[in-house]
Design goal:
This protein has helices at 10-20, 26-37, 43-52, 55-60, 116-129, 142-145, 147-156, and strands at 6-7, 38-39, 81-90, 93-100, 106-111, 135-137. By secondary structure, it is α/β, with parallel strands linked by helices.
Length: 157
């Protein structure tokens, strides 16, 4: 024993790594599990090597992309760009927050549903009062990237 962890002899380390790797929890997930139950010298390096050579882990790994953050350009006219996102739930309600970039005026609409159809219905009402924007900026939530939303958005243009 090493504290409350079981010291794994070299003969069983590979099998232990395979058990820790069930579900493909990634390097940090495996290390977290291992630190609770098992120990051997260089276990962290062995875990990192296993995850790096796993095709399934590599296919879903986050790509570390370094980007330069830039502010959005200032719009030159109304309805050139609109930003929207959902907030909530708060007391069973969601809030669609739409901000006009030109004036930075917010529109906040309370709703119980955040489905694509509910979102399209809300936006139809707003765009009927004003007009459809040239650019619609979202966080790529599922309701904003679905095929029905794309189809409807093309009609607005």
């Amino acid at each position: 024993m090493y504290g409350e962890r079981l010291v794994i002899p070299p003969k069983f380390q590979k099998r232990t790594l395979q058990q820790l790797h069930i579900g493909h929890p990634g390097v940090e997930g495996m290390r977290s599990i291992a630190r609770q139950y098992v120990y051997w010298s260089h276990i962290d390096e062995d875990i990192a090597k296993l995850v790096q050579t796993c095709n399934e882990c590599a296919s879903v790994a986050k790509i570390d992309r370094r980007t330069i953050l830039e502010s959005w350009p200032v719009p030159k006219k109304p309805w050139q760009r609109v930003h929207l996102d959902y907030a909530g739930p708060m007391d069973g309600w969601f809030y669609l927050i739409l901000v006009y970039s030109f004036s930075e005026w917010p529109e906040v609409i309370r709703t119980r549903k955040i489905t694509t159809l509910a979102t399209v219905g809300i936006l139809r009402g707003i765009f009927a009062r004003f007009e459809a924007p040239e650019t619609l900026v979202t966080d790529s939530g599922t309701q904003f990237i679905s095929s029905p939303f794309d189809t409807t958005a093309l009609k607005w243009v």
